Amino acid sequence: MCKAHVLSVASAKAPFEKTTIERRNLRPDDVLIDIKYCGICHSDIHNAYDEWGGGMFPMVPGHEMAGVVTAVGPEVTKFGVGDHVGAGCFVDSCGLCEYCLSGEEQFCTKGVINSYNSLDYDGNPTYGGYSQKIVVREDFVVRIPDALELDVASPLLCAGITTYSPLKHWNVSPGKKVAIVGLGGLGHLAVQYAHALGAEVTVLSQSLNKKDEALSLGADHYFATSDPATFSELTGRFDLILNTVSANLDVNAYLSLLRVDGTLVNVGAPGQPDKYHVFSLIMKRRSIAGSLVGGIRETQEMLDFSAQHGIAPKIEVICADQVDEAFERILRSDVRYRFVIDMSTL
Ligand code: NAP
Ligand code: ZN
């Protein structure tokens, strides 16, 4: 076992405390990672505030980990000491079911093991990336390309793959009209991926405040959803809408923006159910869908694609004692666009 300094919350909405936990001894296929940076995902807030229910406390959030390998088990073949690596939302799966075999471990039928707020297959709680060290099976570790600095790479491990995966799955390509709803951590990466995949990209944000930044990220158009004229002007416009908003929206209003056969894909995950009228779907054969991060193989593909296309999150690096304040700022949409914790400050 090795001790790891962590940031932990004792109960829902409690402030962060600095404490230590034990990480397991390396198994033959384990990698020990010195976490250098961890991004703050809005899911960390949903979990730490127990907005989705079932929270396991004390909790060490964090699933956007980037760091350096410091030890490997004897059967590890893919990584060596000194490699720059990442770990994301999950750290284990059965490896045998149809979804694991097809590289979509997030849908593992035995149940994927989340990086935190989960019990592993031995029944031990998992603790996430607000931590200086983590032990992860090598199959759940990805390589960070040299072109990406570790601080900038960390948000890609969740925000990057969560937006890249549905854009690929729904065949975003030249000629497609795509709207990204919400220009936060996920949204500002989604704009970059959709643009790189050749789509015509529209950002739908609450206000006009982020217009110049959105255009510089590759958006072709930008509209404020606080202006009712936006919804009349854009009726029937989009092939795909990617909703990255952490709160409930007026789903019927967004469905009305889809063409015939258009799809509204939700990655934003508010704790309360959404409501929509079935006629919003029926009359134009529209679909509502959801998407959950992405598999390990696709996460590696997304990292390589990001490095190749110069795609990177805009980050604000913070110290370990600023995380409570960062949560509050995220809730006020006062972040451009991802907070990243510098783990050397823990
Ligand atoms: P974030 O940085 O807080 O961004 C969310 C954005 O949504 C905000 O920047 C804001 O954009 C918009 N927004 C917030 N409150 C709103 C409201 N009341 N009405 C309308 N728009 C609002 O969060 P994030 O880290 O990108 O995560 C976004 C959501 O995705 C969270 O619910 C998170 O749990 C979820 N998530 C899901 C997955 C998955 O696998 N499906 C993975 C990661 C995260 P504007 O200022 O531009 O309006
Ligand atoms: Zn996340």
UniProtKB/TrEMBL annotation:
A GO MF term: zinc ion binding
Cofactor(s) listed: Zn(2+)
> What SMART domains does the entry give?
PKS_ER
- Sorted UniProt keywords: Metal-binding, Oxidoreductase, Zinc
- UniProt keyword annotation of Zinc present: yes
UniProt-listed Gene3D superfamilies: Medium-chain alcohol dehydrogenases, catalytic domain, NAD(P)-binding Rossmann-like Domain
Please state every residue range assigned to the domain named Enoyl reductase (ER): 5-341
Question: Does the record carry Oxidoreductase as a key word?
Answer: yes
What's the family?
Answer: Belongs to the zinc-containing alcohol dehydrogenase family.
Q: What is this protein called?
A: Alcohol dehydrogenase catalytic domain-containing protein
Q: Give the organism the record lists.
A: Paenibacillus foliorum
